[in-house]
Design a protein that fits this description.
Elements (H helix, E strand, L loop, with lengths): L1 H10 L14 H5 L6 E3 L3 H9 L2 H4 L3 E4 L4 E2 L4 E2 L7 H8 L4 E4 L6 H4 L5 E2 L2 E2 L1 E6 L2 H13 L3 E4 L6 H18 L14
Parallel strand pairs: 1-2, 2-5, 8-9
Antiparallel strand pairs: 3-4, 5-8, 6-7
Helix pairs in contact: 3-5
Amino acid sequence: MADALGTQWRRAGHEVVAGSRSRGGVREAAGFGTDAVLLAVPYEAAVDVVAGLEGVLRGRVLIDCTNPVGHPGFRLLTAGGPSAAERIAAAAPASRVVKAFNLCHEDVWRLTPPVFDGRPLAVPLCGDDEEALDVVRRLVRDLGCEPLNAGGLERAGLVEATAALLIGLWVGEGADARAIAPPLQWA
């Protein structure tokens, strides 16, 4: 996710630094620049990674693209409790968390732009800080996509549950998940 989104943001003129265990430090990457930090780690590691960066993330826009989905059956790992985004926000309370970019496989983000049947991809955003949401809306538009207001961070669990459902349909069943949602005029 970091490579796919970072490559597109570089093309749009943003300075991007990636951090990982193998190249560059996570702390240095999280402290770079002013726009945002993309949290692109496995969900199981997300809270620990963020907790270890709390001071660096103070006041920063933290984009959570994690999916708390596991086996068996592509189940939601956070069912019955706070969403992944809410857990991440609790681990770094001084950051400004926005849930985004978690409904599509990384290959979708490599498309320039991600347009399907003549329509730009819509990207649901959940967050409580309007300035942080504005930053992420700009990053969404820089990909050629349309930001979609999905509500406050308390609604992030719905987006995460949608990801679990879609992944299960796509991967588990080989189904075209677009078939479950009629066009707006029929909704």
